[in-house]
Amino acid sequence: MSRIGFKFALSLLVLMCSCCKHIPAGPEGPRKPGKGDDETVYVLDLTSYNNRSSSNRAQMAELWDMMHAVAGLQGLVNRDAERLYVTYVKNEGKNIDEYWWDMYSKPGEWLADRGTVRTKNFFDVIEHFKDYVDGLVVWDPAVPSTSNVASTVAGADNLLPVRWDPSRTSMFTDLRDMGFEVKVWLVNEDGSSKFHDKLEPYEWALTNYLETGKCSARYAAYYIDGYWINHANRAVINHHCVTNHDFFISKKAFFFDLSPWEDEPATDNPAGETGADYRLLCRILRTIYEKNDNGRYFCHIGGFPAWAFKYTRFDGVGGKHGEVDTEWEFARIISAYNAYKDADAISYGAMANGSFWTHFPLDAQYPQEWTTAEELKKKGYLTADGKVDTSKKYFIFYVGDYDSASWLYQMMPSLWDNPARGSVPMMWAISPVLAVRSPMAMHYIRKSASANDYFVAADNGAGYLNPSMLQEPREISGLPSGLDQWAAHSKPFYEKWGLTVSGFIIDGFCPQMNGDCLKCYESFSPNGIVPQKTDALGGMYGNMPILRSGPDINQGNPLEAATNLTTYLKGSHTSFPFYWARAILKSPDWYRQVKARVEAGVSNVEWVDAPTFFELLRMYETEGHDIP
User: Which terminus of the chain is more exposed, N or C, with fewer CB under 10 A?
Assistant: First the structure.
């Protein structure tokens, strides 16, 4: 099963059941004085919005309006300090926002001594923080792309984004009644459309905000636009992901929602020209590249193709491409322009409070220890003459998928806190760039890790891009090599988080990593990489071991998963003793049960930790074995 394959299957289930040295974003403007300029944190309870019906268009419009205004306000007031928190995101009945708030409000923790005001009234909150807001930007419900442009404008001009709706009880009317002046109209004042095509608002924003430098080029946001309001029941209700906007508004990011496909019109604009979205996407990415000192800095793109809604052939969406294909094509394109994604994908795509948590104080470093030949010998993995014992099968699970701040934010409360954690070795694959939006989760898991918890970088290192799209010749963009810039970007993240292994590299639709690309990874991932495309099952580049990735073993039933894993261990490359498989969002108890069942059926399997696995692989390959 591919990376998105699990997310696809999981979302179907949900639908069935429910129907480093971080580079700053650039100038952000002076801190604004006002009533909120103190140590008190306002906590706004929005949990009642989880009870809205996704089939009721009016309720979905109200939900969007509230979340958009709140995200805009958070982005402004939390820009330089943590002041406004919301509780909204739920997962399997657990309030995720309350979970993280409670953790760091305990005695001695970061928020323990902060004054707190709790309220369910948004208008009390906005009254308190009104000095941070310079007015409104109003978007056009008849042209849904203007909703994303509104978020772009909100961050750049210190405005609140709001949908045009002149009815008496609308957010638009309420905010105007409070005295907020409309500073930017993305719709005519009488409600008629100012823009008449999906792409026109993005072209306007590109010209007036990105090219002029009013936006940051270090961050961008790829989230579904207001199209969601009329199609909310196609996925979990919180996948509007408007709550995710707050962080990117705080960073003055450019927001967009465009199809990556060159060979068809966008499914949300079927009358448009074939490939028009793709061409505009490339223009935006090239502008971002140029603004980032011609690719010296990488752009951090939050979001993921909204495949249940757009741009695919999923369940009548209208496209001709598959969900996995769309994920991979978007990754291929952004990689060509020195950008990577923080992949907030459907099912667990919603995240609130990124603009709040980004201020969490991290330690300077989070080191991890490697292993030695002497330790491996004591464990019985080496023969008397110090060589790898090839009578054993060495196995490791890639514990994923943590290439998304929202997935980390939502899933750690249940998966990390599982009582079975620590009972078996687990190679947790977590992208270090998630510390930008979810630093408190990264800190928590590192400080509470057991001896059996070891961390490697998730796909594809310090951000999800296709590294071979950085090597020359570069398809799509034709730009010079980005490998030196990728190494410079990655090294601080790897050093801060004690990472020396890249646990999985998705090559997707891209070329195989060449020598220059391997040299790049050796500079910051010296203890190993696991790409999809290699000439052999294993290999070396310099002193860096290389392992071709294995299968997904991701069945929910541990017995079924163990059966499939046993088949893999007994039937695959029997002359090569190293085995890797991938699972997604499985609990430590699941791994414990799978391990026990596999070991009962395969007598010589060794379920090892990451340092043991990759150091043995290095030793094996340097011993000169023939590798299939």
Answer: C
Predicted confidence (pLDDT) per residue in 500-535, tens digit? 999 999 999 999 999 999 999 999 999 999 999 999
- Reduced to 3 states (helix: H, G, I; strand: E, B; else coil), residue 307 is coil
Nearest to 611 by CA among 619, 601, 621: 619
Read off the tokens for 577. 């003793």
Q: How many CA atoms lie within 13 A of 368 on its CB side?
A: 28
* Helices and strands (H, E) in the chain, number of each type: 19, 21
Q: pTM above the 0.85 mark? A: yes
Mode of pairing for the β-strands spanning 544-547 and 538-541: antiparallel
β-strands 90-91, 94-95 pairing: antiparallel
C-alpha pair distances (Å), 535 with each of 251, 367, 457:
42, 33, 23
Beta-carbon contacts of residue 594 (< 8 Å; ≥ 6 apart):
553, 558, 561, 562, 565
- Cβ atoms of residues 221 and 256 within 8 Å: yes
Q: Strand, coil or helix: what is 492?
A: helix
Q: Tell me 589's DSSP state.
A: H
User: Helix, strand, coil: what percent of the chain each, to 5?
Assistant: 40, 15, 45
What element of type H or E holds 545? strand 544-547
Question: Distance between CA 360 and CA 79 in Å, rounded?
Answer: 13
Q: Strands across the sheet with 182-185, in order?
A: 160-163, 136-139, 182-185
Closest CA to 472 of 464, 462, 482: 482
Ramachandran area for residue 455 (φ above 0: left; ψ -120 to 50: alpha; else beta): beta
Please check whether residue 579 is in contact with residue 550, taking contact to mean a CB–CB distance below 8 angstroms. yes
For the stretch 330-386, pLDDT in tens is: 999 999 999 999 999 998 999 999 999 999 999 999 999 999 999 999 999 999 999
Contact present, 596 and 627 (Cβ < 8 Å): no
Interatomic CA distance for residues 578 and 394, integer angstroms = 5
The tokens for 380 are 């019985």
Tokens of 133: 């807001």
CA 414, CA 409: separation in Å to the nearest integer? Answer: 10
Instruction: Characterize 286-323 residue by residue with b for buried, 16 or more Cβ atoms within 10 angstroms of its Cβ, and e for exposed.
Output: ebbbebbeebebbbbbbbbbbbbbbbbbbeebebebbb
Q: Position of tokens 């005519």?
A: 188
**What DSSP state is assigned to residue 505?**
E
Q: How many residues does this entry show for the chain?
A: 628
Longest CA span, the chain: 85
Residue 287 to residue 208: CA distance in whole angstroms: 12
